[in-house]
C-alpha cells in the first residue's frame, strides 16, 4: 500500500527538518561551512505553524471537536521530556565539572519551563552571536522552544475563537499575513548596523512572521484536501516551482551571513516566504520533492531533529571547555562533536522522549514488574542524572557570579564603549575641521625625530608602556599618527590603551562586541563619506567568524590605494576558523601592497598568561602587550614607506 496523503507530507517535512537541523549544527560548528545555517530555524517555525493550523481545520471542517486540553497534553508529552532532560543532564554536568556555569541555572530552568526563555535572554543581555565575555552558555539556542511554546499556547485559542464566531478562513488568512508582515517590518525597524542583533533575533515579536506564514499556508493549501492526478504540464510546473524555491533557499543559506543587514531588513522574511512555497510543493501528493525528502536517512534524522537541536550546544560548549585547541583540529574535533550529538540524541530519543511521550500511568505502576534488568539500570542512570541536575538547579539559587575574569572583561568592554563613544564624536568633529590632519601619514622626518627626542626628555608620556617595548620617542611619535580603527570585542577590550597611545582628538576607535566584516564595511564607508577616514586604517576582525579574500577586497577597495590598512590577525584557538582567517589575510598581503598584517597570533603564541580564561581576549597585562605590539608594528611600517 502507498502512503496516505497525510503520511506523505509529514515524512516530506522530516526531510525539511533534516535540512534545517543540519544547517544549524554546521553553522554552530563552523560558520564558514553554512554561513546562513541559522536560517534552519525559520524552517522549524514554518512547519510548526502549518501543521498545527492544518490539524485544527482538518478536525473542525469534518465535524470534529478540537480538544484544547488534549492538544496541550500531547504538546507537553512531545516537547517537555527532551527539554527537561537536556536542562537536567546539562545541569548535572555543570555540577560535576563546570560549577562556574551554575549561576542563573535556576532562572534558565524556570523560564524554559514557562516558555519565556527568549525574553529572559533579551533582558539579561545574552548574545546569540558572541560566545565570549561571560555570554557562553549551553542553553543559548533554546530560545526557539519558548517562541514555539508561546505559539502553541496562544494560536489554538485564537483559532477556537475564530471558529466559534464564524470568522471566514480568508479573514483569518488576512489577519495572519498582516501580523506577519508587521513582524518583519518591526524587525527591520529595530535593526541597527554595528549593534548586536540578539534582541531582534530572540524576540517573539520580530520572529513571528515565519510561524504565521506557515499558518497562512495551511489555510489556503490544506494538505488533506490536495488531490493527486494533476495534468502533466501542471505537475511539471509544480515541481519546477519546487526546484526554484529550493535553489533560492540553498543560495541564501550558503551566502547570507548573520551580520548581513539584508538578513534583518527583509532577507529572513524572503527566506521564509521562499521556504513556505517549497513546503507547499512538498505537501502536494504529485510532487516528486516529497519522495526525495522522505528517504529513509532523512526520515530518521527528521524524527530526531528535535533532539539533535537540543543537544548540539551543550555538547559543543562542554567539549570545547575540555579541548580548547579547536583551531589545531578543525576537522577532527567537529566530527567528534557531531558523533557525540548523534549518540546522545539517540539515547534521549529511545529511553527518555519516546517512552514518556507514550507513557500511561499503568506503565509506571507495572514498570518494576515487567521491565528487564537492562531497562531498570537505564532508568536508574536517568534518575541519577535528573536528580543531580535538579540539585544543580537548586544550588544555582545561591551560586555566585562565575568567572570573575570574564565579568571583569565584560565590565571593561562596556566601560570602554561608553567612554570611546564621546571621544569618537569629538574626534570626528575635529577631523572635519582640520584638513591638515587628514593628509598626515605619521611618517617621521629628521626634524620630527629631533622634536620627539627633545619632547621625550622634557615631557615623557605613557611611561607605563615602556616596559612593553615602546621607547619614549615611539610614544611621542604615536601622538602624531592619524588612525581610523574598526574591530570586534578584542579591539574593544584594548581600546582604552589605544586611546592613550594615540591622540584621541584625531583617532577614531570603533570597536564592538560580536562585530563581523559586513558591519565594518558600512562603518568605514560612513567615515569615508564624512571625510574623516584617516590615511592609516586599522582593522581587528575575525574573532567571531571567518571571512574570505573577496570580503577583504571590499574593505581594501573602499579604503583605496592612497591609504594604508593595518589588519590585526586573530588569536582564537578555541574556534576552527582561526587558521582560515589568518590564511586569508596572509594571502591578501600578496595582492594588496597597502596592506600590512600585524601578526598578533604568532607574537602571542604560548603566552596563555596574557589572556582571560577564554584564551581569546587579552587580560589587563595582555592588553598592554597587545596594544603596544600593534603600535610598534604600525610605526615599523611607517618607517618603510
Automatic annotation (TrEMBL):
Stretches assigned to the Acyltransferase domain: 11-343
Alphabetical keyword list: Acyltransferase, Cell membrane, Membrane, Transferase, Transmembrane, Transmembrane helix
Gene Ontology terms for molecular function: acyltransferase activity, transferring groups other than amino-acyl groups
Main location: membrane
TM region positions: 35-57, 78-98, 142-163, 172-191, 206-224, 236-256, 262-285, 297-319, 331-352, 373-394
Organism, as annotated: Companilactobacillus nuruki
PANTHER family: ACETYLTRANSFERASE, ACYL_TRANSF_3 DOMAIN-CONTAINING PROTEIN
Protein name stated in the entry: Acetyltransferase
GO biological process: lipopolysaccharide biosynthetic process
Pfam families assigned to the protein according to its UniProt record, in alphabetical order: Acyl_transf_3
Membrane topology, record value: Multi-pass membrane protein
GO terms for cellular component: plasma membrane
Gene3D superfamilies linked to this entry: SGNH hydrolase
Compartment annotation: Cell membrane
Matches recorded under CDD domains: SGNH_hydrolase_yrhL_like (cd01840)
InterPro entries: Acyl_transf_3_dom (IPR002656), Acyltransferase_3 (IPR050879), SGNH_hydro_sf (IPR036514)
Amino acid at each position: 500500500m502507498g502512503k496516505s496523503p497525510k503520511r506523505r507530507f509529514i515524512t516530506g517535512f522530516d526531510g525539511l527538518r533534516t535540512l534545517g537541523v543540519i544547517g544549524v549544527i554546521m553553522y554552530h560548528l563552523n560558520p564558514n561551512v553554512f554561513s546562513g545555517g541559522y536560517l534552519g530555524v525559520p524552517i522549524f517555525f514554518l512547519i510548526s505553524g502549518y501543521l498545527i493550523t492544518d490539524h485544527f481545520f482538518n478536525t473542525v471542517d469534518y465535524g470534529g471537536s478540537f480538544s484544547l486540553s488534549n492538544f496541550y497534553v500531547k504538546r507537553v508529552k512531545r516537547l517537555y521530556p527532551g527539554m527537561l532532560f537536556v536542562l537536567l543532564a546539562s545541569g548535572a554536568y555543570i555540577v560535576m565539572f563546570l560549577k562556574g556555569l551554575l549561576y542563573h541555572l535556576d532562572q534558565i530552568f524556570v523560564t524554559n519551563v514557562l516558555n519565556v526563555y527568549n525574553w529572559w535572554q533579551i533582558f539579561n543581555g545574552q548574545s546569540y552571536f558572541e560566545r565570549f565575555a561571560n555570554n557562553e552558555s549551553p542553553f543559548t539556542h533554546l530560545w526557539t522552544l519558548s517562541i514555539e511554546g508561546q505559539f502553541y499556547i496562544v494560536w489554538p485559542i485564537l483559532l477556537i475563537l475564530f471558529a466559534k464566531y464564524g470568522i471566514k478562513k480568508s479573514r483569518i488568512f488576512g489577519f495572519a499575513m498582516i501580523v506577519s508582515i508587521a513582524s518583519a517590518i518591526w524587525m527591520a525597524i529595530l535593526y541597527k548596523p554595528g549593534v548586536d542583533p540578539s534582541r531582534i533575533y530572540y524576540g517573539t515579536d520580530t520572529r513571528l512572521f515565519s510561524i504565521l506564514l506557515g499558518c497562512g499556508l495551511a489555510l489556503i493549501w490544506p494538505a488533506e484536501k490536495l488531490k493527486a492526478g494533476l495534468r502533466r504540464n501542471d505537475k511539471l510546473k509544480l515541481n519546477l516551482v519546487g526546484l526554484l524555491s529550493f535553489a533560492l533557499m540553498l543560495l541564501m543559506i550558503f551566502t547570507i551571513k548573520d551580520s548581513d543587514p539584508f538578513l534583518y531588513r527583509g532577507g529572513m522574511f524572503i527566506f521564509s516566504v521562499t521556504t513556505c512555497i517549497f513546503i507547499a510543493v512538498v505537501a502536494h501528493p504529485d510532487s516528486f520533492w516529497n519522495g526525495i525528502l522522505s528517504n529513509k536517512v532523512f526520515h530518521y534524522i527528521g524524527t530526531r531533529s528535535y533532539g539533535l537541536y537540543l543537544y548540539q550546544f551543550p555538547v559543543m560548549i562542554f567539549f570545547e571547555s575540555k579541548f580548547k585547541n579547536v583551531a589545531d583540529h578543525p576537522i577532527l574535533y567537529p566530527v567528534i562533536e557531531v558523533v557525540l550529538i548523534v549518540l546522545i540524541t539517540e539515547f534521549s530519543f529511545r529511553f527518555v522522549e519516546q517512552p514518556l511521550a507514550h507513557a500511561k500511568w499503568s506503565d509506571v505502576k507495572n514498570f518494576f514488574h515487567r521491565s528487564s534488568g537492562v531497562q531498570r539500570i537505564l532508568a536508574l542512570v536517568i534518575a541519577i542524572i535528573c536528580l543531580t541536575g535538579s540539585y544543580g538547579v537548586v544550588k544555582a539559587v545561591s551560586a555566585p557570579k562565575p568567572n570573575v575574569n570574564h565579568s571583569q572583561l565584560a565590565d571593561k568592554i562596556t566601560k570602554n564603549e561608553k567612554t570611546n563613544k564621546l571621544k569618537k564624536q569629538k574626534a570626528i568633529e575635529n577631523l572635519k575641521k582640520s584638513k591638515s590632519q587628514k593628509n598626515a601619514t605619521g611618517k617621521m622626518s629628521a626634524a620630527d625625530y629631533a622634536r620627539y627626542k627633545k619632547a621625550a626628555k622634557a615631557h615623557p608620556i605613557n611611561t607605563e608602556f615602556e616596559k612593553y617595548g615602546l621607547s619614549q620617542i615611539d610614544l611621542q611619535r604615536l601622538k602624531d599618527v592619524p588612525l581610523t580603527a574598526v574591530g570586534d570585542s578584542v579591539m574593544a577590550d584594548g581600546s582604552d590603551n589605544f586611546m592613550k597611545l594615540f591622540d584621541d582628538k584625531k583617532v577614531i576607535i570603533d570597536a564592538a562586541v560580536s562585530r563581523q566584516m559586513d558591519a565594518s564595511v558600512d562603518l568605514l564607508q560612513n567615515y569615508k563619506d564624512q571625510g574623516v577616514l584617516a590615511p592609516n586604517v586599522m582593522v581587528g576582525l575575525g574573532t567571531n567568524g571567518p571571512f574570505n579574500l573577496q570580503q577583504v577586497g571590499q574593505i581594501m577597495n573602499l579604503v583605496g590605494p592612497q591609504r594604508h590598512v593595518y589588519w590585526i590577525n586573530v588569536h582564537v584557538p578555541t574556534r576552527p576558523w582561526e587558521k582560515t582567517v589568518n590564511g586569508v589575510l596572509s594571502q591578501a598581503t600578496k595582492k594588496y601592497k597597502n596592506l600590512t598584517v600585524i601578526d598578533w597570533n604568532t607574537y602571542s603564541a604560548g603566552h596563555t598568561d596574557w589572556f582571560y580564561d577564554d584564551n581569546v581576549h587579552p587580560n589587563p597585562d595582555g592588553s598592554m602587550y597587545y596594544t603596544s605590539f600593534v603600535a610598534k608594528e604600525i610605526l615599523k611600517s611607517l618607517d618603510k614607506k
